[in-house]
Each structure stands twice: as structure tokens, then as C-alpha cells.
TrEMBL record:
<dbReference type="Pfam" id="PF03446">
    <property type="entry name" value="NAD_binding_2"/>
</dbReference>
<dbReference type="Pfam" id="PF14833">
    <property type="entry name" value="NAD_binding_11"/>
</dbReference>
<protein>
    <submittedName>
        <fullName>2-hydroxy-3-oxopropionate reductase</fullName>
    </submittedName>
</protein>
<dbReference type="InterPro" id="IPR036291">
    <property type="entry name" value="NAD(P)-bd_dom_sf"/>
</dbReference>
<feature type="domain" description="6-phosphogluconate dehydrogenase NADP-binding">
    <location>
        <begin position="7"/>
        <end position="166"/>
    </location>
</feature>
<dbReference type="InterPro" id="IPR013328">
    <property type="entry name" value="6PGD_dom2"/>
</dbReference>
<dbReference type="GO" id="GO:0046487">
    <property type="term" value="P:glyoxylate metabolic process"/>
</dbReference>
<dbReference type="InterPro" id="IPR006115">
    <property type="entry name" value="6PGDH_NADP-bd"/>
</dbReference>
<keyword id="KW-0520">NAD</keyword>
<dbReference type="InterPro" id="IPR006398">
    <property type="entry name" value="Tartro_sem_red"/>
</dbReference>
<dbReference type="GO" id="GO:0008679">
    <property type="term" value="F:2-hydroxy-3-oxopropionate reductase activity"/>
</dbReference>
<keyword id="KW-0560">Oxidoreductase</keyword>
<dbReference type="InterPro" id="IPR015815">
    <property type="entry name" value="HIBADH-related"/>
</dbReference>
<comment type="similarity">
    <text>Belongs to the HIBADH-related family.</text>
</comment>
<dbReference type="InterPro" id="IPR008927">
    <property type="entry name" value="6-PGluconate_DH-like_C_sf"/>
</dbReference>
<feature type="active site">
    <location>
        <position position="175"/>
    </location>
</feature>
<dbReference type="InterPro" id="IPR029154">
    <property type="entry name" value="HIBADH-like_NADP-bd"/>
</dbReference>
Length: 297
């Protein structure tokens, strides 16, 4: 183990957190992790990391703490309070929150951390489970340039496109825009799929040629097989996209930006969740279009 690499504490080992933490281990980092599920702790240990029984224990000796949890309430739960990150890290530690949360939560966290001498970056990601596994995530960062520069080698072990977008909260704002574009894109693809199928066209052939032209997108490349096979095993759950559409519509409202198409897609995501599909991949927006088009799904 190289003595020059910072010691990492990783909090949150879910669909994204597990492969991301493993990529840091592969890059030579000493990673101590904590999460709520024993199986995920066992997986980390099997990959060469160290499982910690609590947040306090995980972060005690860390140079860098990375968090990857579902939403703002979880970030607040792990950051604050006597058992939380801020009470148990050493001053000077760098806290990198890679969760997708409200920009306001990131700004508040940075302010609270500053009082403890802890530096913070908000660094949400795009690319889903596949991007996490392949270490090709897009990472949008908010915070100070010096902290970003320090974290850059870590980010390079996790992703490919790594950009400082502005002050605290900026990473979350860009992530919110990302989720708006992705949801609208999936919805458009889903509508095209139903239209093509009802027209009797060879769907696989149609999607191939569409993806080669201006209609092509990373979304279509990543989700084509989900559409073709009706395989909605979650890479990114509808429940989480529902949360993200709430973040973007709320943030847009507060800055006075109109999102007319985004608002419609936010409602379609909400309706899919209300029909019990919240645990499925966001490509399951296809099911909503099928229902609207008369199919029994």
C-alpha cells in the first residue's frame, strides 16, 4: 500500500457505492466502508476493503470521506448528530458527497462542515450502475478549486468526465439538469418504441438506425436492450428519478425557470411510481406509454 495515497472512508454501499468503492481499492486506495446491510459490508471486505461497524469508526482515521446515499434526508442523517460524520472526523478532512440531493442541502452541509474545519465538495455523478462499474462516470462538482484539485486523482479512478461547475451546490444543480434531460430522453425513446411496435416495424433494426443519426443518444445506447427485452431490472430506480424530478422542478421554480416538458415527464414518473413500478429501472417509463396506448401491463 502506497503511503502517499489518502485513506478513504466510504459511507453508503448501494448499487453505485459498491462498484465505485471497489474501483478505488483497485486503484490502490485504502478504503474503510460503512453501510446498513451486512452483505454489502462483506462484499467490500471481499474486494479488499475494511468493513466498519459504524460511521464514527469508518471516518475516524480518514483523510477523505466519500458519501453515496439515496437522498437529502440520508445525507443529513449520516452527516449530523453525535454519531455522524462531522462529529467524528478530524479537522482538515475532505468530505465528498457523491449523492444526488438538493443544492440547498449541499450548501448547508458545506457551511456546517466549515465550522468543524472540514472541507466539502458536492460531486454527484451520471452514468448509472454501468458507468460506476466501468469507472466512466460523469462527475459534476461544486466547491473550492483547491479541494477539487486535491480530489481529482480520486475522481479519475471513478469517472471519465470530471468538471468543477462552480461553488457549493453547483454540482447538484448540474446533476438536476442531467436528470431532467435523461428523463425526457427516456420518455421520448419509450414513445418511439410503442409507435414503432404498433406500426409493425422491426424494433431492433429501427433502434439501431435511429441511434446512428441525430436521434441517437447515450440513453438509447444504454437502454436499448431494456426496451427490446422489457428488462427493467434497476440500474437506476424510478423511485430515485422521482426524487430527482422533484429536486429539478423545485430548484427551477426557485430560480424562475419554466420546465414545461420536464413537468409533464415528472408527472409520468410519479404515475409510474403510484402504479407500483417504483423499484424498476427508469427505462420502465415504457410501461407507462404502453398503458396509455391500451396495453395491459
Amino acid at each position: 500500500m502506497s503511503k502517499t495515497l489518502p485513506k478513504i472512508a466510504w459511507i453508503g454501499l448501494g448499487i453505485m457505492g459498491s462498484p465505485m468503492s471497489e474501483n478505488l481499492i483497485k486503484a490502490g486506495y485504502d478504503v474503510t466502508g460503512h453501510t446498513l446491510e451486512q452483505a454489502k459490508l462483506d462484499r467490500l471486505a471481499a474486494a479488499g476493503g475494511t468493513a466498519a461497524p459504524s460511521i464514527a469508526e469508518a471516518v475516524r482515521d480518514a483523510d477523505v470521506v466519500i458519501t453515496m446515499v439515496p437522498a437529502s434526508p440520508q445525507v443529513e442523517a449520516i452527516a449530523y448528530g453525535p454519531d455522524g460524520i462531522l462529529e467524528n472526523v478530524r479537522p482538515g478532512t475532505l468530505l465528498i458527497d457523491m449523492s444526488s440531493i438538493t443544492p440547498g442541502t449541499s450548501i448547508e452541509l458545506a457551511a456546517a462542515a466549515k465550522e468543524k474545519g472540514v472541507r466539502v465538495l458536492d460531486a454527484p455523478v451520471s452514468g448509472g450502475e454501468a458507468g460506476a462499474v466501468e469507472a466512466v462516470l460523469s462527475i459534476m462538482v461544486g466547491g473550492e478549486q483547491a479541494d477539487f484539485d486535491e480530489a481529482k486523482p480520486l475522481f479519475e479512478a471513478l469517472g471519465r468526465t470530471i468538471v468543477l461547475c462552480g461553488p457549493h451546490g453547483s454540482g447538484q444543480t448540474v446533476k438536476a439538469a442531467n436528470q431532467l434531460i435523461v428523463a425526457v430522453n427516456i420518455q421520448a425513446c419509450a414513445e418511439a418504441v410503442v409507435f414503432l411496435e404498433k406500426s409493425g416495424v422491426d424494433l431492433a433494426a429501427a433502434l439501431d438506425v435511429l441511434n446512428g443519426g441525430l436521434a441517437g443518444s447515450t440513453v438509447l445506447t444504454r437502454k436499448k436492450d431494456n426496451f427490446l427485452n422489457r428488462d427493467f431490472a434497476p440500474g437506476f430506480r424510478i423511485d430515485l428519478h422521482h426524487k430527482d424530478m422533484g429536486i429539478v422542478t423545485d430548484a427551477a421554480r426557485s430560480v424562475g425557470a419554466a420546465l414545461p416538458v420536464g413537468a409533464v415527464v415528472a408527472q409520468l414518473v410519479a404515475s409510474l411510481r403510484a402504479q407500483g413500478d417504483g423499484g424498476l429501472d427508469h427505462s420502465a417509463l415504457l410501461r407507462s406509454v404502453e398503458r396509455l396506448s391500451g396495453a395491459q401491463v
